[in-house]
């Protein structure tokens, strides 16, 4: 069978009738499907529709489903609903080295828009952990399609499942040395022109927000400065909070320490805003350079963060010293989530109560309606205020 070509993203993907899965060999019993899907693309879209309210999860799941669909039709010449257990063994090897590279892997190390003709499903080979994650997601998708009656069986259910191990300690975080290099690099960024000053002010505020707030990059992109608000504690002291709508659309309160509020005011004045935000303000937490007041996308924030880490790594290399190259390579691999792990690790290392760390990072939901929990909130705010600080070089 002649494979389809070229590769298109899932949102505009259309496959010819022989490969669309309408007659796949693993299709469920006719008339018993519980979803209104006539082919594989429609079935995958039905599965993905469950995650539209969680953009990060949706993007990750779409990426893996999309890669499988494209490989199945373009490379194997089979519909997804005809894939066998053996096919998935071949697919996992493909993930480790997508070939031919020009068809599957984007060039130049850049991410291109999904409608850009240079778009590709991969940015390079997947490591072992990324391969496992891909197969976990696909197994979940196939199991759901079986439950929905679209597929007769899940070919991945035949895979060998290793015993569940305890989660390892977090390793993707910045050491004290790497964190100090990052802060020093941002503090030393050029500030001779208005554009340079704006870039440095944004970098300083973004890294402050990610570190002191322990936020996810999606939370920075999806919330506004109007989410800051003040309330009095039981002793009459004013405390500021940042109310975040986070992962799974769960709300949580992040202590806005005096340091965080000072940096917020510094940033707002630098971009021509009043020092304190209004509660109804829709200004994004981080602004693009220039006069625009539109929120930055997660991709734009990610690129900004990666650029800073790369600059800090170059600074470390230039200074030299023992294991400078190894530390620089780690910094170049760092991302926004490393900052979140760094924040959590530093809070724990400074002996902040782990329940405080848990609530600050939003690992469990937080209620603010109970007076009892309100009192606990004040204690959490005080511990964060006292022990979790950022040390900018002035």
UniProtKB/TrEMBL annotation:
Its main location: cytoplasm. It is found in: Cytoplasm. Pfam families: Phage_integrase. Residues 38-146 form the Core-binding (CB) domain. Residues 109-121 have a biased composition (Basic residues). It comes from the Bacteria. Residues 102-124, 374-394 are annotated as: Disordered. PROSITE patterns: CB (PS51900), TYR_RECOMBINASE (PS51898). Residues 169-386 form the Tyr recombinase domain. The keyword Cell division applies. Transmembrane segments: none annotated. Keywords: Cell cycle, Cell division, Chromosome partition, Cytoplasm, DNA integration, DNA recombination, DNA-binding. This is Tyrosine-type recombinase/integrase. The lineage of its organism: Bacteria, Pseudomonadati, Pseudomonadota, Betaproteobacteria, Burkholderiales.
């Amino acid at each position: 069978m002649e494979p389809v070509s070229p590769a298109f993203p899932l949102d505009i993907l259309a496959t010819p009738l022989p490969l669309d899965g309408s007659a796949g060999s693993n299709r469920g019993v006719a008339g018993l499907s519980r979803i209104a899907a006539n082919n594989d693309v429609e079935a995958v879209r039905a599965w993905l529709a469950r995650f539209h309210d969680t953009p990060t999860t949706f993007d990750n799941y779409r990426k893996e489903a999309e890669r499988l669909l494209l490989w199945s039709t373009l490379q194997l010449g089979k519909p997804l609903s005809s894939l066998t257990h053996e096919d998935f063994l071949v697919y996992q090897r493909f993930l480790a080295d997508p070939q031919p590279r020009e068809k599957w892997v984007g060039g130049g190390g850049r991410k291109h828009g999904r409608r850009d003709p240079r778009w590709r499903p991969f940015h390079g080979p997947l490591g072992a952990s990324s391969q496992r994650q891909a197969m976990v997601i696909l197994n979940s998708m196939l199991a759901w399609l079986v439950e929905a009656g679209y597929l007769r069986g899940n070919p991945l259910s035949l895979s060998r499942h290793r015993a569940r191990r305890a989660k390892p300690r977090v390793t993707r975080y910045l050491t004290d040395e790497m964190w100090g290099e990052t802060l020093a690099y941002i503090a030393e960024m050029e500030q001779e022109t208005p554009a340079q000053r704006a870039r440095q002010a944004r970098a300083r505020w973004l890294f402050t927000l990610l570190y002191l707030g322990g936020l996810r990059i999606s939370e920075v992109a999806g919330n506004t400065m109007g989410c800051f608000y003040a309330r009095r504690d039981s002793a009459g002291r004013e405390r500021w909070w940042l109310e975040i709508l986070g992962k799974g659309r769960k709300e949580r309160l992040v202590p806005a320490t005096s340091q965080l509020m000072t940096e917020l005011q510094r940033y707002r004045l630098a971009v021509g805003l009043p020092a304190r935000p209004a509660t109804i303000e829709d200004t994004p937490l981080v602004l693009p350079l220039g006069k625009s007041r539109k929120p930055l996308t997660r991709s734009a924030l990610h690129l900004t963060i990666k650029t800073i880490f790369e600059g800090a790594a170059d600074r470390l290399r230039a200074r030299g010293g023992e294991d400078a190259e190894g530390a620089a390579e780690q910094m170049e691999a760092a991302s926004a989530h490393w900052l979140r792990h760094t924040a959590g690790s530093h809070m724990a290392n400074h002996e902040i109560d782990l329940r405080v760390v848990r609530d600050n990072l939003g690992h469990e939901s937080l209620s603010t309606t109970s007076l009892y929990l309100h009192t606990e909130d004040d204690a959490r705010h005080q511990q964060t205020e006292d022990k979790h600080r950022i040390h900018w070089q002035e």
